[in-house]
Every structure is written in structure tokens, then in C-alpha cells.
Specification:
With about 240 residues, the chain is an alpha/beta fold. Helix content is about 45%, strand content about 20%. It is built from ten helices and twelve strands. The protein has a five-stranded parallel beta sheet, with helices on both faces. The chain has a four-stranded antiparallel beta sheet with strand order 6-7-8-9, with helices on one face. Helix 2 runs parallel beside helix 3, helix 3 runs parallel beside helix 4 and helix 8 packs across helix 9.
Length: about 240
């Protein structure tokens, strides 16, 4: 019987106290933990090693978390959880644009971070390591491509102009292509609305409609990729 290998996580934070605290909680869950105190050290370790997750502080000295995340996405698809300051909406947006998969806000509960870590690893545990190791600044599908560094969406050779939230929604679906999400899931993941209710579902429907219209204007097949899963929600299906 094959035993599952423990996941390897890199903690990137200039505060040793934070690294020690996270190491304590994550090692209790049997994760293998490595640390980096700044962006340069993190990039060096990421080049040399394969991790299943990188927990990355936004406010690093010198090379900040956004720059580190962009550098990671030029090398690998390793999931990145960004740690941001409370109320830093701009930092969250820039983090997603740079390729972050999720974020947690300081001050945070270590237990909350552990739960988020497990959720990301559960989503990505089936990914082939060779896929995780290829450059990820572009998501490419038959009719659609997304450049996550330039925040550019192309249908064939036509650039599609999206609002920020339309882009974030399309990017989230594309990054998790083939997975069906409820409207509640999308409100939480894209709008960061942890108390979403049915009265707000129309927000998701409206954004999906606009995305389809813009994609269809360039190529009908592209719009069809944003698929309605009846009774559930939406999925991007290449």
C-alpha cells in the first residue's frame, strides 16, 4: 500500500515570529516546511526545489510579494497563497493579477490559514508535477488565452476588454477549468464575500452574461466555453 507523501510548503515572510508560528501549526498537520526571509531567497529556493504550496507575504523588504509572485509564474504553476494587510484591497487585486491563488488577511487565525492551505492542496493534489513546473503566466485554450502578467485576454488574435471583476471571474474559472462552481462559491472566491446569499446571485449571472457577450463578439466558440451547469453554477470548459 502506497503512503501519501507529505506536502512540501515554503513560507516566505521577513518576520521570524510569523514563520515560527505557521511552522508550528502546519507541522502539526504533517506538512514539510521550509522558510525564506525575503524574496531573493524565496526565488532561489523555488528554482531549486518543487513545492506543493508557497505562502507568500505581500510586504517583503526589497523584492515585494507581487514581484516574487510574478517571478514564480514565469517559472512554475505552484499554488501561491498571498498574505496581505487588513483593508489592502489594492494588494489583493495585484496579487490575483500576478497569479496568486488565494489570500489570507493579517491578523489571521493560524487555524484559518491551515484550513485554507488544505483547501488549496485538495484542489491541486491531482495535478501532474510536470504541469506544476511549466511556466504559468499564460492560460491557453483552443479559442482563448489569458496573459496573467499583462492582464490581457485574447480570443484568437483579438484583445477582449474586460472590467476588473469580469477579468477576475474569467481568470478564476480559467485557472480552475473543468471544475463547476456554485454562485456562492464564486461570490466568495472572486468578490471575497463570505456571507453571500441568494439575493446576490444575480451579480454573478450578470458578469457571466457580459463576459460571454464580449467573447462571442470575437468568436462564438469562445463564449460557449463559459458553461452553465444547470442547478449548480458555472464552469469553464475548453
Amino acid at each position: 500500500m502506497n503512503m501519501r507523501q507529505p506536502e512540501r510548503i515554503l513560507l516566505v515572510d521577513d518576520e521570524k515570529r510569523i514563520r515560527n508560528l505557521l511552522r508550528l501549526y502546519l507541522e502539526k498537520e504533517s506538512f514539510l516546511i521550509e522558510e525564506a526571509a525575503d524574496g531573493i531567497e524565496a526565488i532561489r529556493k523555488i528554482r531549486a526545489n518543487d513545492y506543493q504550496l508557497i505562502v507568500l507575504d505581500l510586504m517583503l523588504p526589497g523584492m515585494n510579494g507581487i514581484e516574487v509572485c510574478r517571478s514564480i509564474r514565469e517559472m512554475k504553476r505552484t499554488p501561491v497563497m498571498m498574505v496581505t494587510a487588513q483593508g489592502d484591497e489594492f494588494g489583493k487585486i495585484k496579487g490575483f493579477e500576478a497569479g496568486a491563488d488565494d489570500y489570507v488577511t493579517k491578523p489571521f487565525s493560524p487555524r484559518e490559514l491551515v484550513l485554507r492551505v488544505k483547501a488549496i492542496l485538495n484542489r491541486t493534489s491531482g495535478m501532474n508535477p510536470e504541469i506544476l513546473a511549466i511556466p504559468a503566466n499564460k492560460l491557453v485554450f483552443p479559442f482563448l488565452s489569458i496573459d496573467t502578467l499583462a492582464r490581457q485576454v485574447l480570443v484568437q488574435d483579438t484583445e477582449i476588454r474586460l472590467t476588473l471583476k469580469e477579468y477576475e471571474l474569467l481568470y478564476f474559472l480559467a485557472r480552475n477549468a473543468g471544475i463547476a462552481y456554485t454562485r456562492e462559491d464564486l461570490l466568495r472566491a472572486v468578490w471575497r464575500n463570505e456571507t453571500a446569499n441568494k439575493s446576490e446571485y444575480r451579480t454573478v449571472d450578470t458578469h457571466v452574461k457580459r463576459i460571454r457577450e464580449k467573447l462571442n463578439a470575437a468568436a462564438d466558440e469562445a463564449g460557449k466555453m463559459v458553461y452553465t451547469v444547470w442547478g449548480l453554477g458555472y464552469s469553464l470548459r475548453p
